[in-house]
Amino acid sequence: MNTRPAMDKLRVTILSAVALLAIYGFTERLDQKAAKAKVGTAIGDMAPELAFMNLDSTKVLKLSELRGKYVLIDFWASWCGPCRRENPNVVAAYGKYSQAKFKDGKGFEIFSVSLDKSREAWKRAVEQDKLSWKYHVSDLKYWASEASRLYGVSGIPMSFLVNPEGIIVGKNLRGLALHQELDKYVKSL
Fold first, then answer.
1. At 111, is the secondary structure helix, strand, or coil?
2. Are the C-beta atoms of residues 161 and 75 closer than 8 Å to each other?
3. How many CB atoms within 10 Å of residue 37?
4. CA distance 105 to 64
5. Where are the beta strands (DSSP E) in 26-128?
6. 140, 119 Cβ separation under 8 angstroms
7. What DSSP element (H or E) covers 168?
8. 60 by DSSP, 3-state: which?
9. What is the SS3 assignment for 110?
10. Contact 76, 157 (CB under 8 A)
11. Rounded distance, CA 122 to CA 136, Å?
């Protein structure tokens, strides 16, 4: 009686089971790592959820909708001179990175949070500064904004760079520093 085919079948079954367990264990560890991340605003923390009305007050936009992408959460206002002076850099970053290929992400997006109290002034500034991305939100509560309280914003402009898993990887990146940080995650050609 030849037991070789039975042994080969057993070996294949055992190797398949080991491979499945290894894959399951790896993905389970990744899920646990993301689940264990503390929600907060420090580098390494899971970014708190943001969900506010869009520019036209027609739809709630959520930060979590952008999971899988690098996201710049940009706190600003139409009345803030330093914010308006930084906007050309943010526009340039969006133009440069929104179509870029990332090592571990599906692109780059900006989630603008306005601390305005006037919808008209906010809209006018978005148009004037050519802030062409779709994720513009505000509760129009000025410094009493729920988003600014949640993120500990006491001065603007203020920004947080979030990775595709929702983890904060950079804060207050302005000018060239924003581009240098994003360059770290872009695929080399």
1. strand
2. no
3. 16
4. 14
5. 51-53, 60-62, 70-76, 108-114
6. yes
7. strand 168-171
8. strand
9. strand
10. yes
11. 10
At 27-47, the pLDDT tens digits run: 455 445 555 679 999 999 999
pTM: 0.80
Alpha-helix residue ranges (DSSP H) falling in the chain: 4-36, 81-97, 119-128, 146-151, 176-183
List of long-range contacts for 119-127, beta carbons under 8 Å, 24+ apart: 119/55, 119/57, 121/78, 121/79, 122/55, 122/77, 122/78, 123/55, 124/78, 125/77, 125/78, 125/84, 126/55
Alpha helices in 101-175 (DSSP H): 119-128, 146-151
DSSP state of 188: P
pLDDT for 37: 78
Tokens 């695929």 identify what position?
187
Helix (H, G, I), strand (E, B), or coil: what is residue 3? coil
Instruction: Tell me which residue of 94, 76, 51, 83 sits closest to 153, measured CA to CA.
Output: 76
Amino acid (1-letter code) at residue 49 = E
